[in-house]
Amino acid sequence: MTHQLESIPPIDYQQLIETIYHETKHLAQLGKVADYIPALARVNPDLFGLSVVTQEGKLHYAGDHEVPFSIQSVSKLFTFTLAFSHLGSSIWNRLDREPSGTSFNSLIQLEYEHGIPRNPFINAGAIVVADLLLDLCKDPLESLLSFIQELSGNNQVNYNEDVAESERLTGHRNFALAHFMKSFRNIHNPVEKVLDIYFHQCAIEMNTDSLAQSVSFLVHNGINPLNGKTVLNPSQAKRLKALMLTTGLYNESGDFAFRVGMPAKSGVGGGIVALIPDVLSIAGFSPALNEKGNSIACIEAMERFTTYSGKSIF
Amino acid sequence: MTHQLESIPPIDYQQLIETIYHETKHLAQLGKVADYIPALARVNPDLFGLSVVTQEGKLHYAGDHEVPFSIQSVSKLFTFTLAFSHLGSSIWNRLDREPSGTSFNSLIQLEYEHGIPRNPFINAGAIVVADLLLDLCKDPLESLLSFIQELSGNNQVNYNEDVAESERLTGHRNFALAHFMKSFRNIHNPVEKVLDIYFHQCAIEMNTDSLAQSVSFLVHNGINPLNGKTVLNPSQAKRLKALMLTTGLYNESGDFAFRVGMPAKSGVGGGIVALIPDVLSIAGFSPALNEKGNSIACIEAMERFTTYSGKSIF
Amino acid sequence: MTHQLESIPPIDYQQLIETIYHETKHLAQLGKVADYIPALARVNPDLFGLSVVTQEGKLHYAGDHEVPFSIQSVSKLFTFTLAFSHLGSSIWNRLDREPSGTSFNSLIQLEYEHGIPRNPFINAGAIVVADLLLDLCKDPLESLLSFIQELSGNNQVNYNEDVAESERLTGHRNFALAHFMKSFRNIHNPVEKVLDIYFHQCAIEMNTDSLAQSVSFLVHNGINPLNGKTVLNPSQAKRLKALMLTTGLYNESGDFAFRVGMPAKSGVGGGIVALIPDVLSIAGFSPALNEKGNSIACIEAMERFTTYSGKSIF
Amino acid sequence: MTHQLESIPPIDYQQLIETIYHETKHLAQLGKVADYIPALARVNPDLFGLSVVTQEGKLHYAGDHEVPFSIQSVSKLFTFTLAFSHLGSSIWNRLDREPSGTSFNSLIQLEYEHGIPRNPFINAGAIVVADLLLDLCKDPLESLLSFIQELSGNNQVNYNEDVAESERLTGHRNFALAHFMKSFRNIHNPVEKVLDIYFHQCAIEMNTDSLAQSVSFLVHNGINPLNGKTVLNPSQAKRLKALMLTTGLYNESGDFAFRVGMPAKSGVGGGIVALIPDVLSIAGFSPALNEKGNSIACIEAMERFTTYSGKSIF
């Protein structure tokens, strides 16, 4: 740290996210709400919430920060963390950790690479993680929920069974991925059981306050600040953040790193969660998506957040 | 920053890199020196140098830190910076900024994406940058050399004409890439002229001291600390560092981010340069490569560097 | 026809296939019996049968011509013919008719081509045909069996339920293909029902005598010579033979056309059936396969057949 | 042959092609003349010629059968025949013989298959053949011209130097293919020399009368009927015809076999040549192309030819 930087007055995060909230709210009109299942298609596209949890544990927010939404692929962050905390580096026998360069549900790369998913944050990777959880936990859905409730400090976080059922009914591509990997022997449990985990994790609902809190353990080098428990060791936490940066937003990861500069994870429910190590975590929710499946208003809000605050990992 | 972290005594970087140098030197035996041109094949595989330049401008080193080597693809960092400083974001009309997911010289993705390279750090992207430099500079090779000499503070940095000529004679894949992009109208100058720039940039020689110094402007948010000149503005510097993290080591970028956690750029000459913003830059040179074309000993040394020091961008 | 050709004495097909049988029998040792299901893995690799049915309806044979075997993908010829006879050219709304250039169970091309299979003789195409039969026939399995029994003049042709069940238990790749096409809305019925047809058709058993007879309708321009009924009109018959020539042996089709020069269809059970319009049909069975999944001894026998007889479509 | 067929009166080919000429002439308006070089873009799109040469050597024609045109990729048939007649089956060390499944100038498959072209009738394959001719002939362009003049019985067949030069100036994709294969060591001579052959062969000009005559050797099982010389032995001739059927019209080969049922070769100049063994050869010329680069009117004319005459290879 140089002398000049130290003399800068502390940033007023509450005012900052309110400013950004008002500047970027209208952007939702440029996108399109996910409509592959009715439960998502019905979501009000005008909803927009932002929450920040600082390293000291202070919560700041703007807009619809208390409205629960379907976290969808953001859940891949939690299932992976849970499996990684059990398995450590042996998890890489079943998964790779490189950017995919292709869409979130592509089978092409999976065929060239003999059923080993590129990373845990594309659908194929998350399905392998679900398969691992079936071996690791007696009741994976129960374990996963407790895990997220503990991270977020919110006992109300829960599965939306209607959404889970809708996911199952329309999830032909995910069935294809799971059966395809099973043909390469990279899924060990029955496909129906594995996808039951997967469709439920997509249907977890929480608000931006809880979501921002739930990744505080990555701000704190692997330790959950709410209870002092070690979720991941420092090396694992570093690695997970690297993975989020390079692969957290599907094939828009490079662009997000480029524009925003924070490790992050997104979902087609319109949520994005991101963080700066030792500084803060931030969560956004706005259902209107760009053509790569990421929330338009949230990306813009987070780009302004790192630009205005001068803080990012770079 | 918390109180606890501030009370940690300052790291002795000189001792740290000496320790790491001795721990990792033997790893060179696991790799294979690039042999596609005689000039590279002849390099002594036992050479190993490490240099660190801190934010304050202090130089630390170990091993063969004064031996010049062929920087090869590390030069893509300099040509891109030079073009980016002239063109700003309009450069993205000709290039994308996503991880490629494939090998450094693949034509497959280029065909699917109609001649637009995935990023400036794969061969195709660097060839487009060379084409841009031909339009931007009266004498691109002269401009590039001055640029690197100024960044590194070393007037001895120069082209090795024998290497450049060898690159040309064996560069069939690069000729293919350039003609292929020209068929998509994404190369504007004659292929021979464009590749003359490209083959020369690969043949630039410098040592690890100079290489570590030459990226100090990225430690300093875009400003060359040697002369106070702005190379890139802070936003551009942030973006370039993000690009290095997601794409700097070809299709090993994700793994390097994961293991090491620093923005970096590598070359088949055995060099890697990396940095932590506001903290330091580091360069390594060891000619023996893994199967993805990156220096085995340098990657291991840098992983230990971030692990032992507890410093990385994550 | 020139005078010289007319003066050639008629070919003694019985002697010809006996000669070829003895010349090629040992080749089975170069291949490998399909082992993905136990029922196929157990087949005696030394079995080898050849049957010819001439245009006049004369049957010639050698070896194990009366041993029933699992026709596997040869069944795609019958399901396609049945659907084509009902739908005519409207069938091409759901299928293409180009060589695939890739392996029989690849998903890659299917993704690039949005769920439309390249042709009816790769797995994806046959699964679409099964889906069509579910819409066309009240009891597709019953209709298919009657159809084949009528073509072959053999009421003993039947499904092997053990094989069908084994196919289902190991058919992860086919489940993946079906779900994948369903995600593109190119499968209309439930995947389980569609694949039940598909796994049963693979499990049809017949011998080479019956198999050679069953394609006599293609020797006779679309008319079943056993009962005079029109199976396909002449234009449809021509088109089906063209399709067999360009796509009947997966990505070995070009090579088979090149070496043998007859429209044909193969299966991993070791069967191949082929024909020369207006001249004869020929069926072979030898379980040992090459790496492309086609019977080694049968291909060699058929190449000798067209070379020795001087007859082919070219 | 059945009794019924033998009693059919001989076909009046002259009347048949006149009828078809008038029925299909207007179809040229549905296509688009190749415009990648000025010399082709300037061709009158209303030109339409058809010529048939029967097994007995009788010539029939309609329309612009005497207007020379640029045969473009049809020349691949002649260069391959010339090289195949010298090398026999050893030619397959450098080339494969399977349908490509992709566009005529794709590099994708070439990368997956390590620089071995799928077949001699895509650009990459023809470039390898040109490389072979450089090793086989003292003066390849002279040898090729003599060869075609002898096959067609027309000494006026010649190169159009303006077209050859235009091909060179716009041939970036072909330069890319050649350099790419050279990087896999599947081009032995300098790229410039190889492509000089290739660009010249594309620039050969002849009319449909000569073109139909020039493939008569394939109607006659490999023997040039004009002089009795053996061009290919019967086995080679059979194989070449199979190759034409499966790969002669790029990725429209399957469809052409399906609709027309004759071995054929097309070019973007608007020419197509096809044949029925022991019966006749046919050539057409109409410059307007479909989106796969084949002449619309010629394909339709040939489909009607086989449908009306009831003659095809199937």
Describe this structure in words.
- The structure is a homotetramer.
- Chain A has a 5-stranded antiparallel sheet. A 3-stranded antiparallel sheet of chain A has the order 4-6-5. The first copy, chain A, has a two-stranded antiparallel ribbon with strand order 1-10.
- In chain A, helix 9 (about 170-185) crosses helix 10.
- Chain A is globular, with a radius of gyration of 18 Å.
- The relative contact order of chain A is 0.19.
- Helices cover about 45% and strands about 10% of the residues of chain A.
- Chain A starts with a helix and ends in a 5-residue tail after the last helix.
- The first copy, chain A, has about 325 residues and is an alpha+beta fold.
- In chain A, strand 7 (about 265) and strand 8 (about 270-275) form a beta hairpin.
- Chain A is built from 15 helices and 10 strands.
- Chains in contact: A-B, A-C, B-D, C-D.
- At the C-D interface, helix 13 and helix 14 of C face helix 13 and helix 14 of D.
Name the features.
homotetramer, 314 residues, alpha+beta, 15 helices, 10 strands, 12% strand, disordered N terminus
